[in-house]
Specification:
31 helices; 5-stranded antiparallel β-sheet; 5 domains; mainly alpha; 949 residues; two-stranded antiparallel sheet
Length: 949
């Protein structure tokens, strides 16, 4: 029987109460109070159903019960502070658990949360006959930064209490009416309603327990007298009316000659199509008999299904369909009637149409149907439509084909949209049945279907967290979705930071151009990114609490929740779609940190090389740098630089003394002696005393040159060479891991990597590069013959390229000779003219000046030689010098590539032997480790017995 009960009381320090303890008692959870340093826990036989509702602007930590009420305890400073307000309501027993949940949550949301309170709801069902709810409310409004300083005193007014009482009666009666329950409750007293009945008093928990044991209480005695009095006033028929419940008639077909199923019907239809084509092609009696048999069976199935529906008066919908589809609809509706155990026409029609549309959509998608795939298909159809419109505008598609394709597109779009609507309707219906539809009120009505889908997905992924946290996650996902549109790639902490830097530069540029609208748009985007970053950090912090060992690894590696590794870890955990183990989490974080370190090392090496880091480029760079260090050792250069610097400083000092003495107008014999001595010393050091400034500057330049060379060598030894060597080691380690993960027989290779020689490491790198270039895993052991054949082909190609290089190089050299001869001829002709003019002669006139004659003869010889060279120009008429030069460069590059492949194949041909040696080394070390382990166990046992081994 539905009864009205609503009681409001406060949780106050004045009464020596603790709000964390109160929340623990009502929720049945273990909560730790930070103020008293105590853990509060009250066990219950039936675990309460708990929810936390909060305004949309509330931060995410309010959905964590312990954090919420500890924050209340911390915020309220006074000794007599009112910490919370509690509302206790009795729930009608006539409602199901999901209906009770929806009633309480809707009432709490509309009555308290919309006014700015946070509601901690606990539904108690310890006694099946007394379901009730405790609603613990905060006394302050909440903002994004936490609780506000000033309390809302309007919540304490009596008018509010009366409004709450009326609201509970209203919401309860609406729920009872919705479920066709005749009972109603009223918040007014008998006196206010004009009823002469006497009201009963509320029986508290302690008195209720005493009454259950048979111990009479004062309140119980009073209520019994009141009830006896009221019974005399109300007739039995007015007091209780019998509830009439409709029973649905369930009938199953026990007598059926033909088994009716959609799966069998569809298979039979396909057989008929196949046999029809076969009969048309062969025209034989066997195919004709098969076709007749299958067709007769199909007609029997359709007739049987139709008659079954006709007996249930469900054939009306079938008659409205086209004649060729009536049989299929009959079979589908009959199977749905058996599956759903219902004869409701609307439900059956909806189920049949849904199945047919889903099958069509599945044929469009060519894979199983999900909500995400349907959304993607809608986008794909939009792109297809734009593409066809563009083709029609450009005249690349005929009008007939365009209309045909558009009809197909529109049909697919209608089917897809209908499937999406059914998914959304199913999600909305589920939330309504479970009493969670109240959570949709934080969004606009047009977004409810989409949000319902997201809520269901979050509930599947995180079944253990509260509904309030799920709602908060969906809101946060909306922010992350906006951030993804801004970033245009996966939302991670490092991606957000990078995009924020770009936005800042863009904002500065737009501010200089005084474009205020764009600046405001940039600021809005930056705010979204700040929110998204905060969400990722909070999620990392919350998720890491479940993995203490992972936290330990993070701290040991010097990483924080703000690091890119953590955002990648969070994305990985969400992508897994399940709860990952501590070992998996630790392994992934270790792997990420290793990748981060390796990427950093490779980036440092790239700065040194100033080009792409490959194993070949790194090896060549190491050889070059070591050769530079070997040519002139650093110690020698440093000693030379130090000696030169000291000599320069001493020369500066002596030159200063020399200038000081030489500037004196009166010099003694001692001064003259010192000047001669200083002059001799400076001359020995190569310093001209008559030009001291230039000599000292030259000496300083030589010192600086040696010091720069010393610094360069020192940088090579201390910075560049170590970085490149680290990069080489990283590439080798990556190759070892790859080979161990790719080839099962070498799965422990990384553990035994210290056994590998440098040549073996190099071969493993070549194996990795070979597989990456070919795009598949190559069997180097069993397919060595293929490698040998490939090497022979490469050698032949290399020889052919070498011959081509010789031929093209000869042509290029001829072009170079011709070009040089043309330049020489032009220069010689010019000199000849000058000599003829200078000697005042003309062509073929003997020059009288012997010097001019010799010069003239030399120029004439150069002209004749140049003309002889230019005779080969006729051979090059059909040739193009620039093209030949480019061809030569390409041939040299090809030759170099073939040379590299040949060298790589030389190493790969030894893979079989190297892998066998490596396997033997690993087995030998494993045996040695096992022997040492057994010896250690033996020594421990002997020591335990008091003996020494």
């Amino acid at each position: 029987m539905a009864i009205y009960h609503l009681k409001v009381k406060t949780i106050s320090r004045k009464k020596q109460q603790n709000v964390v303890a109160s929340a623990a008692y009502r929720s049945g959870e273990s909560l730790h109070c930070e103020r008293t340093k105590e853990t509060k826990y009250y066990s219950r036989t039936v675990q309460p159903e708990t929810h936390i509702l909060a305004p949309s602007e509330a931060p995410s930590w309010v959905f964590l019960r312990q954090d919420l009420w500890n924050e209340v305890e911390r915020f309220e400073k006074r000794g007599n502070s009112r910490l919370a307000r509690e509302v206790v309501v009795a729930i009608p027993n006539e409602l199901s658990e999901s209906e009770q949940r929806e009633l309480v949550l809707t009432f709490a949301h509309d009555t308290f949360v919309q006014q700015g309170m946070i509601a901690d709801v606990a539904i108690h069902r310890d006694d099946k006959n007394n379901p009730h709810a405790h609603i613990l409310l905060t006394t302050r409004e909440i903002s994004q930064d936490g609780f506000v300083k000033k309390k809302n005193r309007d919540w304490d007014k009596k008018e509010n209490l009366l409004a709450w009482r009326e609201a509970w009666a209203k919401y309860t009666n609406l729920s009872l009416e919705k479920e066709n329950v005749q009972e109603r409750i009223d918040h007014r007293s008998y006196e206010e309603r004009g009823i002469e009945l006497l009201p009963t008093k509320h029986v508290g928990y302690k008195e209720h327990q005493l009454e259950k044991r048979g111990i009479r209480t004062e309140t119980g005695e009073y209520n019994r007298r009141v009830q006896a009095y009221n019974q005399r006033l109300i007739s039995l028929q007015e007091k209780r009316q019998s509830l009439v419940k409709e029973q649905q008639k369930k009938e199953t077909d026990s007598i059926s000659k033909v088994e009716i199923s959609v799966k069998g019907y569809v298979a039979l239809h396909k057989k008929i199509e196949l046999v029809t084509k076969q009969q048309e092609r062969l025209q034989d009696n066997k195919s004709k008999q098969k076709l007749h048999s299958y067709t007769w069976l199909k007609e029997q199935i359709e007739t049987s299904a139709y008659r079954q529906l006709e007996e249930k008066n469900l054939h009306v919908y079938i008659q409205e369909q086209p004649m060729e589809l009536q049989g299929e609809y009959s079979v589908r509706m009959y199977e749905k009637m058996k599956e759903l155990q219902t004869e409701d026409m609307v439900s059956l029609v909806e189920a049949v149409e849904r199945d047919m549309v889903m099958e069509k959509v599945e044929s469009h998608l060519k894979q199983s149907v999900t909500y995400e795939r349907l959304q993607s298909h809608v986008v794909l159809l939009d792109r297809w439509e734009k593409s066809m419109q563009k083709q029609q505008n450009n005249g690349r598609i005929s009008d007939t084909r365009y209309v045909s394709n558009m009809n197909i597109l529109q049909a697919q779009r209608e089917d897809t949209k209908q499937a999406i609507q059914w998914y959304e309707l199913q999600a909305m219906s589920y939330l309504s049945r479970q009493g969670y539809s109240v959570y949709l009120r934080d969004w606009k009505e047009e977004k409810h279907p989409e949000i319902a889908i997201q809520l269901l997905e979050e509930m599947k992924q995180s079944p253990t967290i509260s509904m309030g946290m799920i709602v908060q996650r969906v809101k946060e996902n909306e922010v992350l979705s906006e951030a993804q549109k801004i970033i245009r790639k996966e939302v991670t902490i490092d991606a957000i930071d990078m995009r924020r830097k770009q936005l800042h530069k863009w904002k500065v540029a737009e501010q200089k151009q005084k474009r205020s609208e764009r600046v405001e748009h940039i600021i809005e985007q930056a705010k979204v990114l700040v929110k998204a970053r905060k969400i990722l950090v909070e999620r990392c912090e919350q998720e890491l609490k479940q993995y203490p060992k992972t936290q330990g690894i993070i701290q040991s590696l010097g990483m924080t929740e703000n690091s890119p590794v953590m955002s990648k870890w969070l994305s990985w955990k969400q992508a897994m779609g399940r709860d990952v183990t501590e070992e998996e989490s630790m392994s992934y974080v270790t792997k990420l940190s290793l990748q981060q370190k390796e990427e950093k090392m490779l980036q440092e090496a790239k700065k040194v090389l100033r080009k792409e880091v490959t194993y070949h480029s790194v090896s060549v760079a190491i050889d070059q740098l070591q050769e530079q260090l070997t040519d002139t050792p650093i110690k020698i250069i440093l000693n030379e630089a130090r000696t030169k610097r000291m000599a320069y400083e001493l020369a500066i000092e002596r030159a200063g003394e020399y200038q000081k003495l030489s500037s004196k107008w009166r010099k003694t014999s001692s001064h003259q002696y010192q000047l001669e001595k200083l002059k001799t010393w400076l001359t020995q050091k190569g310093i001209d005393v008559n030009n001291l400034a230039y000599s000292l500057q030259r000496m300083k330049w030589n010192v600086g040159k040696i010091e720069k060379e010393a610094l360069r060598k020192e940088r090579i030894a201390e910075v560049q060479l170590p970085r490149i060597q680290q990069a080489k080691k990283v590439l080798e380690e990556q190759a070892i891991r790859y080979v161990g993960e790719t080839y099962p027989e070498l799965k422990d290779l990384y553990t035994h990597r210290h056994l590998l020689s440098q040549k073996e490491r190099q071969v493993l790198v070549q194996m990795k590069l070979w597989n990456e270039e070919s795009g598949k895993v190559y069997d180097f052991v069993n397919r060595q013959g293929n490698l040998e054949d490939l090497q022979d082909k490469i050698i032949r190609k290399k020889l052919h390229v070498k011959q081509s290089i010789s031929h093209v190089s000869a042509v290029v050299q001829k072009f170079a000779k011709v070009h040089q001869a043309e330049q020489v001829l032009a220069q010689a002709e010019e000199e000849k003219k000058e000599l003829e003019t200078k000697g005042n002669t003309f062509k073929r006139v003997v020059l009288r000046d012997q010097t001019l004659l010799k010069e003239y003869q030399a120029v004439q010889e150069r002209i004749e030689k140049a003309k002889e060279v230019l005779q080969i120009k006729q051979e090059l008429v059909k040739e193009n010098g620039e093209a030949r030069q480019a061809e030569l460069e390409e041939l040299k590059l090809s030759y170099h590539q073939f040379q590299e492949k040949e060298n790589r194949l030389d190493g790969l041909l030894e893979v079989s032997d190297i892998l066998e040696r490596t396997r033997q080394k690993m087995q030998q070390e494993a045996k040695e480790r096992e022997y040492e382990h057994q010896q250690a166990i033996r020594r421990k046992k002997m020591k335990h017995r008091g003996l020494e081994l």
